[in-house]
Automatic annotation (TrEMBL):
<dbReference type="Pfam" id="PF00909">
    <property type="entry name" value="Ammonium_transp"/>
</dbReference>
<dbReference type="InterPro" id="IPR001905">
    <property type="entry name" value="Ammonium_transpt"/>
</dbReference>
<feature type="transmembrane region" description="Helical">
    <location>
        <begin position="251"/>
        <end position="272"/>
    </location>
</feature>
<feature type="transmembrane region" description="Helical">
    <location>
        <begin position="25"/>
        <end position="46"/>
    </location>
</feature>
<feature type="domain" description="Ammonium transporter AmtB-like">
    <location>
        <begin position="25"/>
        <end position="431"/>
    </location>
</feature>
<dbReference type="InterPro" id="IPR018047">
    <property type="entry name" value="Ammonium_transpt_CS"/>
</dbReference>
<keyword id="KW-0472">Membrane</keyword>
<comment type="similarity">
    <text>Belongs to the ammonia transporter channel (TC 1.A.11.2) family.</text>
</comment>
<feature type="transmembrane region" description="Helical">
    <location>
        <begin position="219"/>
        <end position="239"/>
    </location>
</feature>
<dbReference type="GO" id="GO:0005886">
    <property type="term" value="C:plasma membrane"/>
</dbReference>
<feature type="region of interest" description="Disordered">
    <location>
        <begin position="447"/>
        <end position="472"/>
    </location>
</feature>
<keyword id="KW-0812">Transmembrane</keyword>
<keyword id="KW-0924">Ammonia transport</keyword>
<keyword id="KW-1133">Transmembrane helix</keyword>
<feature type="transmembrane region" description="Helical">
    <location>
        <begin position="339"/>
        <end position="357"/>
    </location>
</feature>
<dbReference type="InterPro" id="IPR029020">
    <property type="entry name" value="Ammonium/urea_transptr"/>
</dbReference>
<feature type="transmembrane region" description="Helical">
    <location>
        <begin position="120"/>
        <end position="141"/>
    </location>
</feature>
Amino acid sequence: MSIANLNTYPPNAVPQWLSLGSNSWILTATTLVMIQSVPALAMFYAGMTRRKFSMNTVMMVLFSFASTFLVWTLLGYSLSFYSSSLRVDGMYLLGLPIPIWNLPIFGETVYGPAQTSLNIPFLTFVMFQFAFAAITPGLIVGAVTEKMNFKAWMLFSPAWIVLVYAPVAYWLFAGGWLNQLGAVDYSGGYVIHMTAGYSALALAMVVGQRLPQERKIEAHNLLLTAIGFGLDWMGWNGFNGGDAGGATIDAAIAVFNTNLAAAAAAITWLALDMKVFGKSTFTGLANGAFTGLVAITPMAGLVNPSEAFITGIIAAPIVWIGLYRILPRLGVDDSLGVFPVHGIGGTVGGLLTGLMIDPTVSSYYLPGYRGALFGDWHQFLVQALAVLVVGVYSFLITFGLGKLLGKITPLRLGEKEMMQGDYAIHGETAYPDVVQMEPDVVQIKIRDSGNGKEVKSSKSGEEKEEEKTKDI
């Protein structure tokens, strides 16, 4: 619709404060970030699991997405961004739990204790921030897939949004106490990736390990994972580009830096894999790209392209060591390696933010901010403090929440459910032709093309291996 045609709308629909370009971009960015959860993250994780757990993995991500929207509407947004807040000695700790419909939802965006305003509708901002909240517990799914009781997850995910996500979002997105000290998180390196990563480690510890014979990752469909990966990478343009708050120069800087860091980290990780393992793998490339995306997120619109490039090159080997060296020594069964990529990756990005904020670039978003490399070591110290606070808080609250929920319902799947997977948990499966019934027996349904009747046969694990060998 052309600008000239706007006069056909009632004046209230196009108030003077409204920027049509910024509103259009943030609505688009919101959609991109929502796609990162549904379907991208669901497909990425589902393809990385065993076939028998693919639908359970999807269900956990989708449940988090839907339940977060309800929690966000009822009290999550106001806890995270409401202008009035709980405070101690002038330090703002948390918003007040108020349903969305009791807020000025049809006006201009105004949020946080400083009454920060944006020239976009309030509901646009609410939806954009919801998309961030929704993907965060979804990321945790990767650490507990194939072993966590779905009923326990239904209690954990909404409670986690209230107890972990909302407070940290208030501290670093809305103008809370860490912001008051000078810490910045451009787009969620702390609020999303560090909270998810350290919470994933804590929850994986509380839930326990998978069955001994199933602790190795066995991706059943890397093409499905590749589709999810691609959508997630492209969705990151909205993830980081939207946090400028409008269609600004800073949005363009953030998008460019995001992709540069991802590409640099992906190639660096691939080179490490080839050097150490002698092979280049898709999962390595994907982990590398995600590492770069995570690490650049807290500073995407605050650094210059050369620093984004360096961020990808530095983050990749550190997270690579975290995945292949540190995680195994911790003895924690983090099913899909969420802690190294998001926890360690977020930590690296958070610390580098304190070093690399370029005052020339920050002038487009936070004038006056500069990193230690540009003469302000205080910025590095407050970013390091934020790393410590967010990591410790996320881990401890999640660990305690997991222990508490374990007294209400079992956190871990029973052995029968672990053996059967989707069918035992949900009564349906993505692959109905093969349903695992016993530890070493698979029931196969074969439809006779002649009479349309189903013929069932059972084969032991040894027979299947022999048959597979013959096929090869």
